[in-house]
Amino acid sequence: MLNLDSTIGKSLSRLPAFPATVHRVTSLISDPDSSLSELVDVIRLDQAITANILRMCNAAYFGLRHKVDNLNDAIMYLGRKNVVRAVLAAGCSSFFKYTPGYESEGKSLWEHAVGSALLSQILAKKILNRDDLQLFTAALLHDIGKVILGEFVSEKYLEIKDTMSVRSCSFLEAEEVVLGVNHAEIGGAITAVWNFPQNIQQAIAFHHRPDHCPAAESPMPWLIHLADQGCLIMGIGTGTDGLSYHALEKAAIRYGFTNEAFEDATTLLVQELEKAREIVGIVR
């Protein structure tokens, strides 16, 4: 556990539990032997997730000729990948709210989260040639630390900005100097409280500094770093910390990822965001 300021530690301890239904569903979907009936049995007990899955299924994007009014049919039409997105969105969106220190409204933070999660999957397909459920989860939650740290950043905003100017450092580095911790590290601590797997915790904690991650060979923090920066470059969910981070060269060089390939990935993201507008719209 991080050595946190007592007030930050107390805020972390007051965080609501992560929905158990989401944990159970993601475990089932990760198991290739799980059945549709098992998914339905878990999801039908959660009204919010059920409602979001039905809404996604009946969205114009899927082009169905008749309205789907039951969970079995909805899951069958959506497929496993879209079920994951709906379940995680229903479980995660309620944690995203206004974060004053980062000048981000809940919707903006949520749009950035969804955009980063979608771009992480595009990058995983291009670089690793596979989809990755855990990567999607980690990317969706990569900035969850801002929810806790926002109020403290707000109180110390001028000091953080002065530190950036005096030291010519990033917002992340200034957070560390002034608060003793950064939002990525707090995000890792939050997912530890929520009992997420260690690789997800580490991917979130090191998504700005993937070269510092103890799991040196894991691609997750690198892909989240690329996805996060890609969304910021595109203006998806920018806040006061904006583009105040180091460039993408290390990650790009590590995977032989060219500027052209990165531009292709962000073009695909625009299309994916249109498909995912029902997810983006559920933040509460």
Which keywords apply here?
single chain, 284 residues, mainly alpha, Hypothetical protein af1432, 2 domains, 16 helices, globular
How would you describe what is shown here?
- With 284 residues, this protein is mainly alpha-helical.
- The chain folds into 2 domains: 17-95, no CATH class; 96-284, Hypothetical protein af1432, CATH 1.10.3210.10.
- The protein is built from 16 helices and no strands.
- The two termini are 30 Å apart.
- The model has no long low-confidence stretch (mean pLDDT 84).
General form: globular
Task: For the record, give the distance between the C-alpha atoms at the N and C termini, rounded to a whole number.
Answer: 30 Å
- Strand pairing plus helix content: what structural class? mainly alpha
Could you tell me the mean pLDDT?
84
Count of β-strands: 0
CATH superfamily of the largest domain: Hypothetical protein af1432
Figure out the total of helices: 16
Q: Specify the CATH class of the largest domain.
A: Mainly Alpha
Q: Report the C-alpha radius of gyration, rounded.
A: 19 Å
- What kind of sheet is the major sheet? none
